[in-house]
Amino acid sequence: MPEEAPAQQASGERVPVDVAVGVLIDGGGRFLLTSRPEGKVYAGYWEFPGGKLEAGESVEQALRRELHEELGITIGAVQPWRIEVVDYAHARVRLHFCKVFAWDGAFEMREAQQMAWNTLPVDVSPVLPGTVPVLRWFAEERGFSGPTHAAT
Ligand SMILES: Nc1nc2c([nH]c(=O)n2[C@@H]2O[C@H](COP(=O)(O)OP(=O)(O)OP(=O)(O)O)[C@@H](O)[C@H]2O)c(=O)[nH]1
């Protein structure tokens, strides 16, 4: 499904769309990646689960809603981590990455996506461009050197 044409600022830059992104980390330090469902831009690419904020929502509210809608889980505390603006041909997005260490419920792939728990280097491919910086941040935090993912 094509995304809506983004609004433009007076400066000519496109207004970013805010996106809440969940970096779920389990007790063993593994993080969850999911594949983008068929019908969306970058279908089949691996990313951290999340989605766009709806009108009036905070990042945390959007994240709770999206992860429940997409994965069937109810998340616990949300720890804001980093914010990254990425320019795609289809949109300019402001990604609000949040760490989540606790959740309830069994994972259900409600959009027929796939899920994979990963450590570095990740063993899924291709990785969404907007996901690559997160892998680098993990590498910095964890003292990991070398490629974080397979080049596409
Ligand atoms: N969920 C998620 N989106 C990301 C990541 N990195 C990244 O660049 N994006 C971009 O952020 C945007 C998120 O939009 P989406 O299509 O997943 O959001 P959504 O579930 O609300 O979609 P919808 O409009 O079909 O309801 C996309 O342009 C996607 O390419 C990431 O790690 N996770």
Question: What does this entry look like structurally?
Answer:
It is a single chain. The chain has two helices and nine strands. 16% of the residues lie in helices and 30% in strands. The protein has 152 residues and is α+β, with helices and mostly antiparallel strands. The strands form three sheets. Strands 4-1-7-6 form a four-stranded mixed beta sheet, with helices on one face. It has a three-stranded antiparallel beta sheet with strand order 3-2-9, with no helix packed on it. The radius of gyration is 15 Å and the shape is globular. β6 and β7 form a beta hairpin. The chain has a single domain, classed as Nucleoside Triphosphate Pyrophosphohydrolase. The protein binds 8-OXO-guanosine-5'-triphosphate. 8-OXO-guanosine-5'-triphosphate (8GT) binds next to β1, β4 and β7. The site of 8-OXO-guanosine-5'-triphosphate (8GT) has 18 residues, from β1, β4 and β7. GO terms for molecular function: 8-oxo-7,8-dihydrodeoxyguanosine triphosphate pyrophosphatase activity; 8-oxo-7,8-dihydroguanosine triphosphate pyrophosphatase activity; 8-oxo-dGDP phosphatase activity; 8-oxo-GDP phosphatase activity; metal ion binding. Keywords: DNA damage, DNA repair, DNA replication, Hydrolase, Magnesium, Metal-binding, Mutator protein. InterPro entries: MutT-like, Nudix_hydrolase, NUDIX_hydrolase-like_dom_sf, NUDIX_hydrolase_CS, NUDIX_hydrolase_dom.
